[in-house]
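dumping this here so i dont lose it
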């Protein structure tokens, strides 16, 4: 095949997490990991021990947006950091104000925004406007805008709330 499945990526990533990264973190070393797409999803699966592959497949991790994890001494990620901005279901926090804005719009805390939440935040006034907004912002057609889609929409110069 011309591509690597998420399961293959997870199998390739797990030894790196278990034998290299996790021991360093347990020893108090700050670690910087740079990657993208499935590789980051696979690492997040290892860090957070996510077993639901459907949840992993839909995990929106925006490009160029730093995601920071803080760990307990036993290597488990800390779920809340006072200065961090979290987007469900991630336990890492994002740097930057975009996460804060996304969470203000995502009033149900699901990690994705629907047309009703966009309307309540003042991005659209009626069903037609909200549907048009979703057509532009929702890249995968699931009628939800996750954080990655939100960031892509933001990069396109999306309209500000009214």
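and the seq i came up w/
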């Amino acid at each position: 095949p011309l591509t690597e499945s998420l399961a293959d990526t997870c199998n390739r990533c797990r030894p790196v997490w278990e034998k290299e990264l996790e021991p360093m973190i347990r020893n108090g070393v700050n670690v910087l990991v740079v990657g993208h797409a499935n590789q980051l999803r696979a690492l997040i699966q290892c860090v957070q021990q996510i077993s639901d592959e459907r949840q992993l497949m839909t995990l929106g991790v925006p490009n160029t947006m730093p995601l920071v994890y803080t760990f307990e001494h036993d290597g488990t990620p800390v779920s809340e950091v006072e200065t961090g901005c979290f987007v469900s279901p991630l336990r890492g926090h994002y740097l930057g104000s975009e996460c804060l804005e996304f969470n203000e719009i995502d009033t149900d805390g699901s990690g994705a925004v629907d047309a009703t939440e966009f309307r309540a935040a003042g991005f659209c006034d009626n069903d037609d406007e909200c549907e048009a907004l979703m057509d532009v912002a929702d890249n995968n057609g699931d009628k939800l805008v996750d954080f990655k889609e939100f960031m892509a929409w933001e990069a396109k110069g999306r309209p500000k709330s009214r």
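Helices lie at 6-26, 37-48, 53-57, 97-105, 115-120, 127-137, 147-155.
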